[in-house]
Amino acid sequence: MRGWTITPVGGVCFAIAAFWLIVVLIGPWLAPHPIGAIVSFDIFSSPSAEFPLGTDYLGRDMLSRVIIGARYTVGVSLAAALIACSCGVALGMITAVIGGWFDAIVSRGLDALNAIPHLMFGLVIIAAVGTSLPVLIGTLALLYTPGSFRFARALAANVNELDFVHVARARGEGSFYMIREEILPNIIGPVLADFGLRFVFIVLLLSGLSFLGLGVQPPNADWGALVRENVSGLAYGAPAVIIPSLAIASLTISVNLAIDNLPRRLRDRLS
């Protein structure tokens, strides 16, 4: 059973990631106040029994805003990562099987999209179309689909050249069967690991967009927006800036290290 033993670092990271997932699922019931409610006239107050994380620049409870903001940070990022990986993996497998001019057109088009700096492209799209949750999710998914496509296509192309795939093709199986039965089961593990990394990248990009004012809009807020709102009062109410920053760091680092510290046998199965 040694191969299934998780490392101490992996255990801590899984626990942190699980903690934030629980917060996302039951956040509205955990938050002591509504996310936009002004509950104190003392702005940037220090942590106290009444307000464990202090208050922000308007006197709103930071604990409530961090808890509910987790839903926006994790929810938007998770939705975008799911769309990006689903589209990228599907296109990657299809192009690997079909090949030819179709593969060349799709690959060069997505390579061109991937060459554009993500933050710059996101700013242009959101500034032109407007800021809303569907626009945010769609923009983030569009930006990270090319990377998922390239990863899945490389895996699928390798599997497509193996003997059991040639046997299936020789007995007359169609492309859909090849993708569903022969290729996808053999690349699903690395794809899931890549999904975790895409999620981390999207969290960071979403936080950057929100810090620039083009992410989740008031009175709602994700963690990046919480940093932007309170950064002017850093000298007076540091917890209002530091706590959401630590939340972003804890989520992204824990997910990243959790993937790196998967048990060895599980990594072997996912490879």
TrEMBL record:
InterPro entries named in the record: BP-dependent_transpt_permease, MetI-like, MetI-like_sf
Transmembrane segments: 6-31, 72-99, 119-144, 195-216, 236-259
A cellular component annotation (GO) from this entry: plasma membrane
Domain ABC transmembrane type-1: 70-259
Assigned keywords, A-Z: Cell membrane, Membrane, Transmembrane, Transmembrane helix, Transport
Topology relative to the membrane: Multi-pass membrane protein
CDD domains the record matches: TM_PBP2
One Gene Ontology term from the biological process aspect of the record: transmembrane transport
Locations listed in the record: Cell membrane
The keyword Coiled coil is assigned to this record: no
UniProt family annotation: Belongs to the binding-protein-dependent transport system permease family.
UniProt name for this protein: ABC transporter permease
